[in-house]
Amino acid sequence: xxxxxxxxxxxxxxxxxxxxxxxxxxxxxxxxxxxxxxxxxxxxxxxxxxxxxxxxxxxxxxxxxxxxxxxxxxxxxxxxxxxxxxxxxxxxxxxxxxxxxxxxxxxxxxxxxxxxxxxxxxxxxxxxxxxxxxxxxxxxxxxxxxxxxxxxxxxxxxxxxxxxxxxxxxxxxxxxxxxxxxxxxxxxxxxxxxxxxxxxxxxxxxxxxxxxxxxxxxxxxxxxxxxxxxxxxxxxxxxxxxxxxxxxxxxxxxxxxxxxxxxxxxxxxxxxxxxxxxxxxxxxxxxxxxxxxxxxxxxxxxxxxxxxxxxxxxxxxxxxxxxxxxxxxxxxxxxxxxxxxxxxxxxxxxxxxxxxxxxxxxxxxxxxxxxxxxxxxxxxxxxxxxxxxxxxxxxxxxxxxxxxxxxxxxxxxxxxxxxxxxxxxxxxxxxxxxxxxxxxxxxxxxxxxxxxxxxxxxxxxxxxxxxxxxxxxxxxxxxxxxxxxxxxxxxxxxxxxxxxxxxxxxxxxxxxxxxxxxxxxxxxxxxxxxxxxxxxxxxxxxxxxxxxxxxxxxxxx
Length: 557
Ligand SMILES: [Zn+2]
Ligand SMILES: [Zn+2]
Fold this sequence. Notes:
- It is a single chain.
- By secondary structure, the protein is an alpha/beta fold.
- Helices cover 31% and strands 25% of the residues.
- The protein contains 16 helices and 27 strands.
- The strands form five sheets. Strands 8-7-6-3-2-1-21-22 form an eight-stranded mixed sheet. Strands 9-10-11-12-13-19-20 form a seven-stranded mixed sheet. Strands 15-16-14-17-18 form a five-stranded parallel sheet, with helices on both faces.
- The chain is globular and about 90 Å long.
- One zinc ion binds next to loops.
- One zinc ion (ZN) binds next to helix 2.
């Protein structure tokens, strides 16, 4: 039971200082013997330039892996990838029961079953508004509006006070589908006394309040109605409200909906099971598309972020087996490019425009709205919950800093600027950072999860920049060269500026270097390797202005 040394602490392992990889720990107990709960277990995406070959990035959960015997449960706020995307991969290291709503469980299961050898995860379904007790934690799921069904804030009650962890949320009086963010519920929490509010910072730099999902639906309906030919709409697969509003608009004007892309198929399947697509005509599969008249179809596509293998990119480059678009068709980007994806999205847009296809984006029409709160909405949350402590979360450093300033302006007495790995004591006493824990990221590299510090990635970047030269030399025990050295180059230009083969230049350099070594030196394979390595890189640098990696293999025969 609770004792006088019990502390309530907050320890984010991901999501503070970046958009993505949300993973936050709450701990309760004396410093040496705490119990933990983990809120969310999300992923981020690699960038091809920085992390060649890496698609997915996960938070480094080392701390709680070592403490897993004290981990009571993992609580999923909602099913966006930045909140659940690391769970299938990381769960075997944690093995704690997972709590999530029906829709999130459905998506987790379809993803798990699509991966070979995925572990069976202990999933427990939570109903909206449900409350459960684990150890000293009493956790309540509080429904909020967001851009995916069944999003929740968590009201976490402990003997040291009540924390409201908002998760991702917005105020939307007409969310089209799913929950409202209930003023009454949050006001009641405020009356109960909120010790700390851990709140979404994504849109803190935007003034006012977000438009409603219902406004977007009205606009999309108009754009579908007045389109002369085909309409293709790309959006985030998980935005079921958007998919539903497109389907309703299509029905109104006698068009069929064709759903294209694996991620979209998965979401549609789970959304149907949960009843979010009831009372709509059946969607048609992609292979029906070619048979439908041009003015009788709306295609809903994956690939709004420019992902090269997703439906939209393949259609734009005319590589999709079922779906084609031609001049006069209309493509609507019911989405916004996540920072980092702008180039990829821009190149798809340009390619479609070159083909005479009309493009509509949120720059000129209200065809997308964010699922995160702007300043006007945040101000209300602070007014309703009246927290003693505010900790900005879910944002890049700029967002967190702006949010901290904003929270002070709202009159919050204690504002803590936490980062991934900072252990914040929320109670007893004044909130403060009391420790720093190793945190960071790990990478999914093919089928293997590697630490961020591993040398594979800097090596890959170097190889991409300057290639590699391999030299194989056979030496007998007297230090004589047996046969000609073999030279192979990868990623280097073929010819020098004077038109000589670079491999010839390298081969000559190798021969000269070996000639220049004394017999005694040539019997020392390490000395040979070093001399050839140095000479080859210098010679290539002189011709090319770049130093490739160089592997020298000395074989003693
Ligand atoms: Zn999020
Ligand atoms: Zn979200």
